[in-house]
Amino acid sequence: MAAWDSDWAPQLLPPVEEAAEHTKLWWAAAVAMAAGGGWRGRKAATAGIMSMAAAELLSNGVAKQLVERRRPPKEWVPHDDVEDRPDSSSFPSGHTTAAVAFTAAVAPSWPWAGAACAVPTVLVAIERVHSGAHYPSAGAAGAAIGLTAAALVRATPRLLIRHWARTRSTSG
Q: What's the pTM value of the predicted model, to 2 decimals?
């Protein structure tokens, strides 16, 4: 995929990477949802941000510390994007983790917004491999971590309510 040569990739993928850098794209989406989506938009934005935070903690704070993996060799990437790669472990893809976590958390609250976020999410995952920053397996691992974080964040309120109800019934 890093060697993939197309007419549109050099125009489309670098701006996608720039927008996703430091999660700017997802924060902007959350602000737009919260400002224009009413109660549903605020709920979706909150779920997205919380999931993204949990996913980044798992990805960057845990997985990248446990797995030291070099970036793909520069020789595999025939375009200029290969010069702008981070020095950190390439496993998992933090960009993909954040994108998938945000989108997977937004979709159940507001399916239309989740579908709209899915497009840049896929482009971010493609860009990370195309730029030579990650192997496809790092993107897949990032997606798995993102989905897991979204599921955990979405389940947490129900689990807390259930726990609170159980402790109240046993103490009274």
A: 0.80
The Cα–Cα gap between 151 and 72 comes to 30
Q: Is 162 exposed, middle or buried (0-12, 13-18, 19+ CB in 10 A)?
A: exposed
HEC string of 29-46 equals HHHHHHHHCHHHHHHHHH
pLDDT (tens digit, 9 = 90+) per residue, 101-151?
Answer: 999 999 999 999 999 999 999 989 888 887 777 788 889 999 999 999 999
Using DSSP, state whether 79 is helix, strand or coil: coil
Tell me, what amino acid is at 21? E
59: nearest Cα among 51, 71, 47 = 51
Closest CA relative to residue 1, chosen from 128, 86, 97, 167: 128
Residue type, 62: V
Give dist(CA 172, CA 153) in Å, integer: 29
Residue with tokens 């960009």: 95
DSSP H stretches of helix in the chain? 9-20, 24-36, 38-56, 64-66, 94-109, 111-130, 136-171
